[in-house]
Amino acid sequence: MNKQITTIILGLGGRGRDIYGRYILEHPQEIKVVGIADVDEEKLVRVGKDFSLPKKACFTSAEAILAQPKMADCALICTQDKDHVNHAKMALEKGYHLLLEKPVSDSIEACEELVELAKIHKRHVVVCHVLRYTPFYNTIKDCITKGDIGEVVTVQAIENVGYWHQAHSFVRGNWRKTSESSPMILAKCCHDLDILLWLVGKSCKQVSSFGNNYLFKEEKAPEGATLRCTDNCLARKECPYDAVRYYVEDPVTGVKGGKKDWPINIVAPVPTEESVMEALKTGPYGRCVYHCDNDVVDHQVVNMLCEDGVTINFTMTAFSDRCYRYLKVMGTKGCIEADMDKNVVSVFKFGEEPIHYMIDNETSIEGHGGGDEKMMDQFIELMRNPEHISSLQTSLEKSIESHIVALKAEASRLEEGKVFTVK
Ligand SMILES: NC(=O)c1ccc[n+]([C@@H]2O[C@H](COP(=O)([O-])OP(=O)(O)OC[C@H]3O[C@@H](n4cnc5c(N)ncnc54)[C@H](O)[C@@H]3O)[C@@H](O)[C@H]2O)c1
Predict the structure, then answer these.
(1) Taking all residues of the chain, what is their mean pLDDT, rounded to a whole number?
(2) Domain count, the chain
(3) Ligand 1 center–CA 145 separation, angstroms
(4) What pLDDT is recorded for position 366?
(5) From 12's CA, which of 46, 87, 91, 248 has a CA 20 to 30 Å away?
(6) Which ranges carry the Gfo/Idh/MocA-like oxidoreductase N-terminal domain (predicted)?
(7) Domain range for residue 351?
(8) Same domain, 142 and 260
């Protein structure tokens, strides 16, 4: 029988509770939670119950649990962006292997320091670049590796963040301000930069970028817009960002229609019509999108020049109806068009009939094209054989290039597209 892995979870939010917590509840033979930490007492009590943990295994901060002697094989670090490095350092020093949420850090030096620390303590750090585990991107990579399209010359890719996701996370929510989280190109798109560089298999040499916050600011507010959607706003009827409609009334996205999971459980941890309405009246998610304290971009383009003259063009945009990724990889003998919403990867070998791969990414945990679940499967395998598995799909070392490129892209954006060299 395979060894059951033990873990602690730091941060019990959308990732710690809803993704990894759920995975663990569904895989009791494989992995067991022996300790949890969150600064939010309500979450602590609820997740403690989920895992039948005694009170002494539930800590009121990551710092507090990490001050204890090591109590598990690994730690899942699912706290907020700014805390990852400190929590990771403390956990490595205690001897935990880590599953570390992205972004690792908005400081390249801090990322490098962490690589050194992991080496010193001989611990594995898996960064949650979940896209590398998806059947969708692995199909594209296989086609490229088989030589279906010859040599890759250029890539065009779009991350469609989705208008409501932008409003939820990047205008009203936790990732709205660079100073409190990180620049959007790092926070949201380090995934994309990572996967695109992995697909072309070449390092990035130079980067430039443009982008700004076009819409979500005071001067764009429609006439009659109030500070909150709950304040008898005169613009509500025509506004696609109306929080009351989205979180409460809409039959698909609202609590009235029965929706209880993300993103409503971020608005109110136990969503009912009353609790969500109350949260909209008083909390961040009921604020008018034109009257928030956000400063991250709502669209950005990044141009990358890679080794051998290969180029990548990437666009991130809030302005799409659905959240999905699309890309076209163009090679010397063919091209690949891939749509993550339709789950289709089409290979066009020049002069031949196209081949369409329908991607099956059915997993019990929704989101990220099945990547979350597959990453956890592989993480558990690694934890069972930490001495024998050395090549990790999303090691800290491999993840850092995307962070460097993202930070250079942000520097370029702030200097109106100046070209930056990536070493
Ligand atoms: N890999 C991915 O695809 C992916 C997707 C979404 C989010 N993320 C990243 O995962 C991380 C968590 O995101 P989330 O959506 O779960 O956020 P969240 O805000 O829902 O959860 C973070 C939790 O950490 C807790 N926390 C804050 N300070 C703490 C401390 N000192 N000790 C213990 N707990 C503390 C908060 O109370 C909260 O419950 C973020 O860094 C985010 O960028 C990654």
Answers:
(1) 95
(2) 3
(3) 35
(4) 65
(5) 248
(6) 7-127
(7) 134-216+294-359+396-421
(8) no
Residue 156 resides in a domain: yes
Binning pLDDT at 50, 70 and 90, where does residue 388 land? Answer: confident
404-413 pLDDT per residue, tens: 999 999 999 9
* Lowest mean per-residue pLDDT among 179-183, 306-310, 337-341, 388-392: 388-392
Co-location of 412 and 316 in the same domain: yes
| Placement of tokens 């009235």 in the chain | 256
Residue where the block lists tokens 């890759």: 152
Asked, for residue 258, whether it belongs to a domain, the answer is yes
Burial group, residue 362, by CB count within 10 angstroms (0-12, 13-18, 19+): exposed
C-beta of 173 in contact with ligand 1 (< 6 A): no
- Compute the radius of gyration of the chain from its Cα atoms: 22
Distance of alpha carbon 298 from alpha carbon 184, whole angstroms: 9
Whether residue 118 lies inside any domain: the answer is yes
Residue 378 Cα to ligand 1 middle (Å): 21
365-376: string of b/e by CB count within 10 Å (b at 16+)?
A: bbebbbbbbbbb
How would residue 365 be classed by pLDDT, with cut points 50, 70 and 90?
A: low
Structure tokens, 10:
């730091």
